[in-house]
């Protein structure tokens, strides 16, 4: 763990099911399960493995694939009276082999509905709590992805992220009166994930432009590296899951362990040297952090503004 100022309270959600509010710098959460009991048990086990005592964290249910669940969670959190110093948005749905789209409770395509719209509503509803914090280095962090940046080798692996003119997002991504894809194209599960990550990175920059100066909150995104062994890839074909980790580790040399990725996330949460707002953090092979350059689309201010305004309408904030 990095030395420096420690937030009194910071919060992190994992996938689209459970949420941990912690009084120290640990991350806990669980993968999506059919049983809500399973969600909480996984979060409990994660907290225990991190050495956290029960009085130092609270697990609360949050399903980012349901805007009602997001609102209910925020209401419970606000009524708890807990302060909020740092919010980390770390959830992701990835369905690279899906032939047909799945949908959120409100009927949005699942990847964008969860990864972008769920996070967008959560962050907007908790923004005032962050503003009210007296913590001197309050932050709102979201995990982006190299796969959404077409100025990288990984970002040019087909299908490439491309938001187009946002016609699908404007139509609601419901597959009825609009495409399920942001750009209005045919459904592609891998592209939907990449598109959602572009939205995440654009949204964090728009948060910075709208609120950093008045609030002092640091808004940033990051790519902690290729964590090839996580459950994010659980819906990929078995051969990919078998070969991808050694391919990353021994050929591409881009493999990052879950432990190391956690340390990098904790850096962005609390390191005094990473307080710059509106940036996208990456790490080199020596695990040194640096401010990375986003692709033209992932740094398009006009597109970020349009995504913000369309997203407000879709989640009921406008």
Automatic annotation (TrEMBL):
**A single BP term in Gene Ontology:** photosynthesis
Q: What is its EC number?
A: 1.3.1.33
Tell me where on the tree of life, at the top rank, the source sits.
Eukaryota
List the molecular function annotations (GO) for this entry.
protochlorophyllide reductase activity
Q: In which pathway does it act?
A: Porphyrin-containing compound metabolism; chlorophyll biosynthesis
Q: Name one GO cellular component term.
A: chloroplast
Catalysis performed (reactions): chlorophyllide a + NADP(+) = protochlorophyllide a + NADPH + H(+)
Compartment list: Plastid, Chloroplast
The family database entries (Pfam families) matched by this protein are listed as: adh_short (PF00106)
Q: Which UniProt keywords apply?
A: Chlorophyll biosynthesis, Chloroplast, NADP, Oxidoreductase, Photosynthesis, Plastid, Transit peptide
Q: Which Gene3D superfamilies match?
A: NAD(P)-binding Rossmann-like Domain
Which InterPro entries does the entry link to? NAD(P)-bd_dom_sf, Prochl_reduct, SDR_fam
What is the main EC category here? oxidoreductase
Q: What is its main location?
A: plastid
Q: Which family does it belong to?
A: Belongs to the short-chain dehydrogenases/reductases (SDR) family. POR subfamily.
Describe the function of this protein.
Answer: Phototransformation of protochlorophyllide (Pchlide) to chlorophyllide (Chlide).
What NCBIfam families does the record tag this protein with?
A: LPOR
Q: What protein am I looking at?
A: NADPH-protochlorophyllide oxidoreductase
